[in-house]
């Protein structure tokens, strides 16, 4: 009372008045406290239903505000062992020496057991419980290594707390987040990782870029072989089926799966081997226009666009320019570039945009000179893939099974007339002058494989009626032509021919096919200035990769495929 400044004597009258009012109320109601009689006492209200007991919710560590780590010229701030980097925006060059995940545990690696290493990768799998954390880190190309962190023992309180903080931090990182990790490389036996003979004891871990907590698909699911997915469907824990559309809609995630990533590397390898062989054979690489007036090959399947008030189209091939390069005395030329086909073909082997591997060369006597170059080229590609890119092929064949391609030492050439006869003898319908359909190609591939023991062969002398206007007719029968297709596992991967280099004869063929001559005047003029006999071929890169690897759809061999139904992403 003293502290409030009010004395007991001053409160007395107020207390007496309250007691008097209380007595009067009890006299009126007949009950102490002012309630009514027992007869008049209303029923107590029904008790409110008990609120449902909520299950205990574990703390959501994903919402924890982790330390933000500043980068200094010598690296991360040294007294913070875990946290999220500020956005790396080229402020400093720290001099940190990173070791590729794929090299860890190798005798040729720059980091051996016992070394302190920096690695960068994605969080592929995490198990953090209690006093330890186990993380699978995935590097470029799908190589994986295990990271481990244990609670510090026999250490001061601050060190123990720091180790537990790091364990919780690792456990809270979303899958697919990009992280930098520093730790000690030690010997191990981890069967679930590609780098199974080592692991990293983590000392520091920093998120470079966090992935969203919920992604549209998991890399683990994208990497699973179809037969394993199918076998799981009858169990109580079936694996999810990822259809083609969700994969292509999220292609950047799909391509993180080791097999799909390796397919892109094999695609690159085919281009590398293509260039290697042709450079060694005195070819010159050229780059031709993709915006052209008229149409590349006189067909209807072109994409048109406005070119400053004039209609132009996207090139169906570099065909006409390759030939003009020969007329320019470049001798032997090749190109790797985009090809556009406005064909409404929704099949497993057609694309509206693909990468063309094209070549053209002068010949002295016969188009067989081109065929020998093509055969040597593909031998170089096939052997180069198996010998120099075995790691990538192994990753692919884990998910998509295939056998190495078989081929002959010398070109296996089947003339058109013989191919038709072989099909008929095997019970297949085949017309003399109609093009082969997909079923006939596959059937012919099986026949040739059985007869000659090869997955790779050439058919020449196609009917002139089904070949483009620039094809040279056969000298013995103009119904046939000096043309050829190359087949792999029973499907066409390359088309070519000796070209008609005589301007007058070329105009006759163009007119006979009903193709307008005027848009081709520049092309024709290049032969009026004199041109050596020549031939060449056009190869579809994605189709080569798709068939070599035994894939079920060419879209798997295209980074971001374009077909009649897809123009994104």
TrEMBL record:
Keyword Kinase found: no
Alphabetical list of Pfam families matching this protein: tRNA-synt_2, tRNA_anti-codon
Q: What class of enzyme is it?
A: ligase
Recorded superkingdom: Eukaryota
Catalysis: reaction(s): tRNA(Asp) + L-aspartate + ATP = L-aspartyl-tRNA(Asp) + AMP + diphosphate
Look up the record and give one Gene Ontology term from the biological process aspect: aspartyl-tRNA aminoacylation
* Start-end of Pro residues biased regions: 42-52
Record carries keyword S-adenosyl-L-methionine: no
Region annotation Disordered: residue ranges?
Answer: 22-60
Q: Which InterPro entries match?
A: Aa-tRNA-synt_II, aa-tRNA-synth_II, aa-tRNA-synth_II/BPL/LPL, Asp-tRNA_synthase_2, Asp/Asn-tRNA-synth_IIb, NA-bd_OB-fold, NA-bd_OB_tRNA
Q: Which organism is it from?
A: Tribonema minus
Which GO MF terms are attached to this record?
A: aspartate-tRNA ligase activity; ATP binding; RNA binding
Q: What is its EC number?
A: 6.1.1.12
Localization recorded for this chain is: Cytoplasm
Cellular component terms, GO, for this chain's entry?
Answer: aminoacyl-tRNA synthetase multienzyme complex; cytosol
Listed name of the protein: aspartate--tRNA ligase
Q: Which UniProt keywords apply?
A: Aminoacyl-tRNA synthetase, ATP-binding, Cytoplasm, Ligase, Nucleotide-binding, Protein biosynthesis
Family statement = Belongs to the class-II aminoacyl-tRNA synthetase family. Type 2 subfamily.
């Amino acid at each position: 009372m003293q502290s409030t400044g009010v004395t007991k004597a001053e409160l007395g009258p107020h207390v007496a008045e309250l007691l008097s009012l209380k007595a009067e109320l009890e006299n009126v109601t007949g009950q102490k406290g002012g309630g009514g009689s027992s007869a008049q006492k209303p029923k107590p209200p029904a008790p409110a239903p008990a609120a449902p007991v909520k299950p205990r919710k574990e703390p959501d560590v994903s919402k924890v505000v982790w330390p933000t780590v500043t980068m200094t010229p010598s690296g991360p701030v040294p007294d913070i062992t875990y946290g999220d980097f500020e956005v790396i925006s080229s402020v400093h060059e720290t001099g940190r020496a990173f070791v590729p995940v794929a090299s860890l545990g190798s005798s040729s690696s720059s980091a051996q057991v016992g070394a302190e290493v920096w690695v960068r990768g994605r969080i592929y799998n995490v198990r953090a419980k209690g006093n330890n954390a186990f993380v699978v880190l995935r590097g470029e190309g799908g190589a994986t290594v295990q990271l481990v962190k244990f609670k510090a023992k026999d250490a001061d309180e601050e060190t123990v707390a720091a180790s537990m903080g790091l364990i919780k931090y690792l456990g809270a990182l979303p899958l697919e987040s990009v992280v930098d990790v520093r730790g000690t490389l030690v010997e191990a036996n981890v069967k679930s990782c590609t780098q199974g003979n080592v692991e990293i004891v983590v000392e520091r871990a920093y998120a470079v870029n966090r992935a969203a907590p919920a992604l549209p698909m998991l890399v683990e699911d994208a990497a699973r072989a179809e037969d394993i997915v199918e076998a799981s469907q009858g169990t109580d824990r079936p694996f999810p089926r990822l259809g083609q559309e969700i994969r292509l809609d999220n292609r950047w995630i799909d391509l993180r799966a080791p097999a799909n990533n390796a397919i892109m590397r094999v695609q690159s390898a085919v281009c590398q081997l293509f260039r290697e062989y042709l450079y060694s054979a005195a070819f010159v690489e050229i780059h031709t226009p993709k915006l052209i007036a008229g149409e590349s090959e006189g067909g209807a399947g072109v994409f048109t666009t406005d070119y400053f008030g004039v209609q132009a189209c996207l090139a169906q091939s570099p065909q006409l320019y390759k030939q003009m390069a020969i007329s320019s005395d470049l001798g032997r030329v090749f190109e790797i570039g985009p090809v556009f086909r406005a064909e409404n073909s929704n099949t497993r082997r057609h694309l509206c945009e693909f990468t063309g591997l094209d070549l053209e060369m002068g010949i002295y006597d016969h188009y067989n000179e081109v065929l020998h170059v093509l055969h040597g080229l593909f031998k170089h590609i096939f052997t180069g893939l198996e010998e120099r890119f075995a790691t990538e092929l192994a990753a692919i064949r884990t998910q998509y099974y295939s056998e190495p391609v078989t081929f002959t030492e010398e070109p296996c050439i089947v003339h058109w007339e013989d191919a038709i006869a072989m099909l008929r003898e095997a019970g297949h319908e085949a017309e003399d002058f109609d093009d082969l359909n997909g079923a006939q190609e596959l059937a012919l591939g099986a026949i040739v494989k059985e007869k000659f023991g090869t997955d790779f062969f050439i058919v020449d002398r196609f009917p002139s009626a089904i070949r483009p206007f620039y094809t040279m007719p056969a000298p013995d029968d103009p119904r046939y032509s000096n043309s050829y297709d190359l087949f792999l596992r029973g499907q066409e991967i390359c088309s070519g021919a000796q070209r008609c280099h005589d301007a007058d004869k070329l105009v006759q063929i163009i007119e006979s096919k009903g193709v307008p001559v005027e848009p081709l005047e520049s092309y024709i003029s290049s032969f009026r200035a004199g041109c050596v006999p020549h031939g060449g071929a056009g190869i579809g890169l994605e189709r080569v990769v798709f068939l070599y690897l035994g894939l079920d759809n060419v879209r798997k061999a295209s980074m971001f495929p374009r077909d009649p139904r897809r123009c994104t992403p």
